[in-house]
Write a structure and sequence with these properties.
The complex is a heterodimer of chains A (161) and B (589).
Chain A (H helix, E strand, L loop, with lengths): L5 H13 L7 H12 L4 H11 L3 H10 L11 E6 L2 H5 L2 H12 L12 E6 L11 E3 L2 E3 L7 H13 L1
Parallel strand pairs in A: 1-2
Antiparallel strand pairs in A: 1-3, 3-4
Helix pairs in contact in A: 1-3
Chain B lengths: L2 E6 L2 E6 L4 H7 L24 E4 L6 E2 L10 E3 L3 H16 L15 H9 L15 E2 L5 E4 L8 H10 L4 E4 L6 E4 L15 H5 L5 E3 L3 H9 L3 E6 L1 H4 L15 H10 L4 E4 H22 L5 E2 L4 H10 L13 H16 L7 E7 L3 H5 L6 E2 L2 E2 L3 E4 H10 L22 H4 L6 H15 L17 E8 L2 E9 L1 H13 L6 E5 L26 H19 L9 H11 L5 H7 L13
Parallel strand pairs in B: 1-5, 11-12, 11-14, 13-20, 14-17, 19-20
Antiparallel strand pairs in B: 1-2, 3-4, 3-5, 6-7, 7-10, 8-9, 15-16, 18-19
Helix pairs in contact in B: 2-3, 9-11, 9-15
The chains are: A alpha+beta (161), B alpha/beta (589).
């Protein structure tokens, strides 16, 4: 197993200790780790297992159950395409396919330059502006397939600026 | 005990409050088909939906394994609605199941097949895409085949309950959901100890031992001198494979069957157990006298040894350096006995019949090779022996009782027999330690304090002024308590016996399956009593032995006089002792 840096190990222990008085602290611990590092690899799960007494298999089960958690590092821009019912009937599948096409990755994957991750989301509660795409918290309303290239260019520009 | 009034199928009953519908119905004489429910709620995820019934006060049908009874409840098992719903549940399970039932090694004991039969499930009702399959057969002990998994969670619960380990868990979700070690790893790349408790509860063929029957076939076909030895716990359970009541000792029939299977010699691991006691008791007394690592812990159980190596790498000095009994037996057979009977050691093939899946892993350990030869070549579980006997057309139940080969390595004492039950190794060691320290046999032979099925037992004995404080644990959850004391430097014991499986080898991962649905002639509480019944079979064999202390075994004495010198001698160390190495829980992929 790869070893965590001392700093990372100390911080993860600190995160676990934040919730040591909670009855069911696992979700909170994992959320904080996800927020801090962007992903939760197995060596981190092993450390959380030691601190919480939950088995690695159980923690892995939680991490793989919720799409919010990730096992691999995510890109700088996380392109969340909503595939909820309303967005889907408004053509969201074509939108996400277009992102995949242009970036050369499948949903859940990250581009080699570490810039983009595509996530398939279930309803994000923005049905009125379907199909919706959420990128690092900014919501793009009524996204047309033809607008996808422009969004990517815009983000690339921002990344280079 | 508070009672409540309920009706099942219109008939009034009084039952204990707090039961689930499934348990209450069982006590009233009804068997509601069920799958995920197991062992009084050890697992009842309510996930398989096979046990649906109608109950007043509930909305719709309820899963009887999780729904509690209440006063006045009327339960209907046989309504058309309930019958159809149970059948549909099974048909849905079958729609994502690998239905190669004829070739499945589990078919005789498959609970899914059983409920399919009972509910009248029809073929091809919900055909569609199937989940992607993982088959892990990279380790020597256990095969995991997700195409036969019904996601009931019994194995997940057993691994957590017996061992506090939780090697297995649910991962991913929806159609991709599966049960396996984290990252869907192979068992050999996870902290699994190979004990096979998961195998012993799996309702289908998703978790099975890795069969070595073909290895034995190949050795016989190649003209090897194939000898067989049987562990004590096997004789206490093998009869179950042939419909005998649980707890029927079948030593004589087992020997007769093995002889008819073509083994050149049929020997008893109990001889190896007696030898283990001579070495282990001597090792303990030496450590006590010379200040070696105490407490000393037994090393017979390969599941436990795996656990220690993976989780307590810094405490390995506490393990006895003794090989386990069948490995000692194997070493003696190849390096002493073979020459006696004029067989070349490399032509000898040693088969061990064990109640255990971890023994399959153990026999491949690099530390268990003596002079370039593996001590043991193949390990079959009790269940595999059952299959082998059936395959060969032997009518087991009609066999005469026969004796083990009366040779120079076959005598055994009662001390060897009780190795198969938790506390047995401790008791056997104490019988011999008592003699060494006091110069006379322990009065009444037995050490009752270390018997029984408590997770942790402890006792203190005064042997000729020498205080010996001991503890016995089975199941890794219990072992962990004792190990943490040792790590913290607070352990007060001299000697600890640890067995991997709860209850010891009689409940090993290679023993016959204990399932209500296949045991109509057993008591309804058999799931609570089978361990005690199998243990009783061993204790009764101990009682029947004339010699009940390992040091009184005449063939063991002869082995020392003629070959080994004394217990823990240089020669004994070469042949009968081993070493351990710390391992990491998750290996680098």
């Amino acid at each position: 197993m790869a070893h965590l840096s001392e700093a990372a190990e100390a911080q993860i222990i600190e995160i676990c200790d934040r919730y040591k008085d909670e009855r069911t602290p696992l979700m909170m611990i994992l959320s904080d780790i996800q927020k801090e590092y962007g992903y939760i690899p197995l060596e981190v799960q092993e450390l959380v297992s030691k601190k919480t007494g939950k088995s690695v298999a159980e923690i892995y089960g939680v991490v793989t159950f919720y799409s919010f958690f990730s096992l691999a590092p995510k890109g700088k821009y996380i392109i969340g395409c909503c595939l909820g019912t309303a967005c889907y009937v408004k053509g969201a599948q074509q939108v996400i396919d277009k992102f995949s096409d242009i970036l050369g990755i499948k949903p859940g994957e990250t581009t080699e330059d570490g810039l983009f991750t595509i996530d398939a989301l279930r309803c994000i509660g923005a049905c009125g502006i379907a199909p919706a795409v959420s990128i690092n918290g900014k919501v793009y309303p009524k996204v047309e397939v033809s607008a996808v290239q422009g969004i990517i260019d815009e983000l690339r520009g921002g990344a280079n600026a | 005990m508070a009672l409540v009034n309920i009706k099942i199928e219109g008939v009034p009953y009084q039952v204990e409050a707090g039961l689930t519908i499934l348990e209450a119905a069982k006590q009233c004489g009804y068997t509601i088909p069920s799958l995920c429910a197991f062992n009084h709620g050890e697992c009842n995820a309510g996930s398989c939906r096979v046990c649906l019934v109608e109950a007043t006060g509930a909305r719709g049908l309820v899963a009887s394994c999780v729904y509690p009874i209440n006063e006045g409840m009327e339960i209907t098992i046989s309504s058309p609605k309930a019958v159809a719903a149970r059948r549909a549940s099974v048909e849905l399970l079958l729609s994502n199941h690998n239905k190669e039932c004829q070739q499945c090694e589990k078919n005789e004991y498959c609970e899914l097949l059983n409920v399919a039969r009972i509910t009248g499930a029809r073929e091809g009702m919900f055909e569609g895409v199937k989940s992607v399959t993982t088959i892990d057969q990279l380790n020597p002990a256990i095969v995991r085949d997700t195409s036969k998994c019904i996601l009931c969670g019994r194995c997940v619960a057993r691994c957590a309950n017996a061992h506090g380990m939780g090697i297995l868990g649910f991962e991913n979700r929806g159609f991709s959901a599966m049960v396996g070690p984290a990252e869907n790893r192979n068992f050999s790349e996870s902290p699994c100890i190979m004990c096979g408790q998961c195998v012993s509860v799996c309702p289908t063929g998703a978790l099975m031992e890795k069969s070595e029957i073909s290895k034995v076939d190949a050795a016989m076909a190649a003209g090897k001198y194939v000898v067989v030895q049987t562990a004590p716990a096997v004789r206490a359970a093998l009869g179950e494979e042939f419909g005998m009541k649980i707890g029927t000792p079948v030593t004589g029939k087992m020997v007769a069957a093995l002889r008819r299977l073509g083994f050149k010699k049929v020997l008893d691991t109990n001889y190896g157990a007696d030898l283990t006691i001579m070495e282990e008791a001597t090792e303990l007394l030496t450590r006590m006298k010379e200040g070696g690592a105490l407490p000393m812990i037994t090393s017979c159980s390969p599941g436990w040894v795996n656990y220690a190596e993976i989780n307590y790498g810094e405490q390995l000095a506490h393990l006895s350096s003794c090989k386990s009994p069948h490995e000692m037996m194997g070493a003696v057979l190849k390096h002493y006995y073979a020459a006696k009977i004029g067989v070349k050691p490399e032509d000898m093939f040693v088969v061990s019949i064990m109640p255990c899946t971890a023994k399959k892993f153990e026999k491949d350990r690099e530390q268990l090779v003596t002079e370039g030869l593996k001590d043991v070549d193949a390990v079959l579980t009790t269940r595999e022996l059952g299959k082998l006997i059936k395959r060969s057309g032997i009518n087991f139940n009609k066999l005469p009782d026969e004796e083990f080969d009366n040779d120079i390595v076959s005598d055994y004492t009662g001390a060897g027999v009780i190795f198969g039950v938790t506390g047995g190794v401790m008791e056997a060691a104490l019988r011999t330690a008592a003699f060494v320290l006091t110069g006379k046999e322990h009065e009444g032979v037995k050490f009752e304090e270390v018997r029984g099925f408590a997770g942790i037992k402890e006792a203190e004995f005064d042997l000729a002024g020498q205080k010996i404080s001991v503890a016995v644990a089975s199941g890794m959850k219990n072992a962990k308590v004792l190990l943490d004391e040792i790590a913290a430097g607070t352990s007060k014991y001299h000697f600890i016996e640890i067995m991997g499986c709860p209850g010891g080898c009689i409940n090993g991962g290679g023993q016959p399956y204990v399932r209500d649905c296949f045991l109509p002639n057993e008591d309804i509480d058999i799931i609570d009593t089978y361990k005690a019944k199998r243990a009783a079979a061993l204790y009764s064999e101990d009682e029947r032995q004339v010699l009940r202390q390992s040091h009184n075994n005449p063939q063991i004495k002869a082995l020392y006089d003629e070959f080994l010198g004394a217990p823990n001698s240089h020669k004994a160390h070469e042949l009968l002792h081993t070493s351990y190495a710390a391992r990491v829980p998750f290996t680098e992929k």
